[in-house]
Amino acid sequence: MSSLLRDRLGTHILVADGAMGTMLQAHEPTDADFEGNLGCNEILNVTRPDIIADVHAKYLAAGAD
Hints:
- Helix content is about 55%, strand content about 0%.
- The protein has one domain (about 15-60).
- The protein is an all-alpha fold.
- The protein is built from five helices and no strands.
């Protein structure tokens, strides 16, 4: 755990995001997005960074840290 995170945990209540996989699937990624690794959501970081960014933006907008 980084010292920054440890310091923040000592002084703030941190709100984490929720179900990443569910949110990713709501974007309906295609077979091509998975590059033959159907269900491997991690590959979307490379093939569809726009989806990843959108999911994180939605969690931030909802109040997650």
